[in-house]
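FAQ: What does the model actually see?

It sees only this:
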Amino acid sequence: MGHEARQGEFLIGGRVELFRELPEPFERYRLWPKETRVLFEQLGWRTIAAFQTRNAPHLGHEFVIKSALTFTDGVFVNPLVGWKKKGDFTDEAIVRSYEALLTHYFPKGSYVFSVLRAPMYYAGPKEAIHHAIMRKNFGATHFIVGRDHAGVGRYYGPYDAWKAFEEFPDLGVTPLFLREFFYCTKCKAVVNEKICPHDDSARVRISGTEIRRMITQGQRPPDYMMRPEVADVLIAMGERAFI
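And it is asked to produce this:
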């Protein structure tokens, strides 16, 4: 009979170390689903649009959120903090830049800001469905599905995630399909293709790559790309703004 068959119910090992979980750096912004559901009820919100992000906000993001806010009671801004690929914004940069945006450009009482401790998988449409289900658990009734949601490079089509939601009509959360916003030199405003009649020659795309380049060089992106208060936060962080 082998030794394994003779071993008793208990095993004795060497010295046991107690591992203590490190404090959550964004604990003040961490809310659990049972907390957000109560909070939304206290605010009197019946319709809540959740916004998923892994980036510092530019004007395109801002206008997407505000578009959703026009027909819901409030928005739940819920960025992921956790593993992301090299070149993405750091968790600190995301949190601090949203603090600046929400403080200066959103009415008080129109939003709830909370972080979600989870990694990015860059799985495109599948991850978009996962993101929606998670926000449903927090109490959201609507979920904003943006351009190239959870995509990476040009692997997915810009609106592939929209098609994925057609396969899951019974998620229990309503997807909001909002087109990409850009600056139109003829409209002289930040618009999208549903409300802008002009062709591409008048449309200035809000480039995340260009914003990163300018930030790393200590330059403020133009006002039609990013709010100055947000840009100043990122410029002050310097290299710490990027992974």
